[in-house]
Specification:
Layout (H helix, E strand, L loop, with lengths): L24 E5 L9 E5 L4 E8 L2 E6 L10 H7 L7 E8 L9 H8 L12 E10 L2 E2 L5 H12 L6 E3 L7 H10 L4 E6 L7 E10 L2 E12 L6 E10 L2 E8 L5 H12 L16 E2 L4 E7 L1 E2 L5 E2 L2 E7 L8 E3 L2 E3 L5
Parallel strand pairs: 1-10, 6-8
Antiparallel strand pairs: 2-9, 3-4, 3-5, 5-6, 6-7, 9-10, 11-12, 11-14, 11-15, 12-13, 15-18, 16-17, 19-20
């Protein structure tokens, strides 16, 4: 009689308690992709980092900071209940895809945020790229290649709200070049022999096509066109305080310009949250964070060629750009 094959993960303890929450592994920003057979590559998704906790009788969707946002991602939670698991923790990114099939952070923000959106919440897709726990087994001590071996049968080929983030075995430099040519944000490189480690390290690396960070909105300048936005005034953190780092005056449509101005006018204050005097500016409560692409910093720490990409609330666990004594360290992946 043939012996039944075991589906239990290899090299793990028989039973492990399920963590209530896992601090995510974060990628370190580098200039060039690492080279070698131990590295695999993925698209860098432009969305919200989430952990999907599946348990008997309930599903939780947790943000990077540990907030329970299950009610904000109902289609993801509903589709997760259809996975063939009893208990699991999936690490991934929630995104909205545009007409070109690229993840669009601005579209995602409009679905989740205060601004009107033509896209329904059901359009949000969770791309799973790691499996941390499966049916009473903690997988974090296993190498990435083994975790991916267990993840892929669960989500590969699915067309629902929970899908697989494909891993690419390719030349890193060429994959990065193609990703940038197709308008993607960048790529992620992961060492396939490393276990899952919370926090930032060089076992996960990100290579971005453009510089992009999150900045606190501290005010705006009205446009010469009535009812429109002229320029956002932005701040970053330095020694625990907010400091002005310049403005952003491009990246929005006429419709979004009006909507942003209306939103910010409802948050106006008498004085600025930073040391700044600017004639005609309207200062606001520092509760919103703008995602901004930019080319570089000036010598006096002002943004060069900044372009608006999206907006979120600081309570959404947005990591605000910090200015350091020896340079700039931006907000990492969401």
């Amino acid at each position: 009689m043939a012996r039944a094959s075991s589906k239990k993960p290899r090299n793990v303890a028989p039973i492990d308690p399920m963590p209530a929450r896992v601090d995510p592994c974060l990628a370190t920003l580098v200039d060039k992709p690492p080279i070698g057979p131990d590295w695999a590559y993925e698209v860098k998704w432009d969305g919200y980092r989430l952990a999907l906790h599946i348990e008997p009788g309930r599903v939780r969707v947790l943000t990077r900071g540990g907030y329970d946002w299950t009610d904000r991602f109902p289609s993801i939670a509903d589709d997760a209940r259809r996975l063939a698991v009893k208990t699991a923790i999936l690490d991934g990114e929630a995104v909205v895809l545009n007409d070109q099939g690229r993840s669009d952070f601005g579209m995602l923000q409009r679905v989740l945020g205060r601004l009107p959106s033509a896209v329904e919440a059901g359009a949000i897709v969770f791309y799973a790229f790691d499996l941390l726990y499966l049916d009473s087994h903690d997988l974090r001590r296993l190498p990435l290649r083994e975790r991916r071996r267990l993840l892929e049968p669960l989500v590969a080929g699915r067309e629902g709200a929970v899908r697989l983030s494909e891993e690419v075995q390719a030349d890193g430099d060429e994959f990065f070049r193609v990703a940038c040519a197709h308008g993607l944000e960048g790529i992620i490189a992961k060492h396939v022999e490393k276990p899952y480690r919370s926090g930032r390290g060089d076992w996960w690396q990100k290579i971005t096509c453009k510089r992009r960070d999150s900045f606190v909105v501290v005010g705006f300048e009205p446009s010469t066109v009535a009812g429109h936005l002229g320029r956002l005034l932005l701040a970053a953190r330095k020694d625990g305080e907010l400091v002005y780092v310049g403005g952003c005056g491009t990246g929005w449509s006429n419709e979004l310009s009006r909507e942003l101005r209306k939103l910010l006018e409802g948050m106006a204050t008498k004085g600025p949250a930073v040391a700044l005097r600017r004639k005609g500016a309207v200062f606001v409560e520092p509760v919103l964070v703008a995602e901004v692409e930019y080319r570089a910093w000036t010598d006096d720490w002002k943004l060069r060629h900044a372009s608006f990409k999206g907006i979120r609330e600081r309570e959404d666990d947005a990591t605000v750009c910090a200015l350091l004594c020896n340079g700039s360290q931006g907000a990492e992946e969401r």
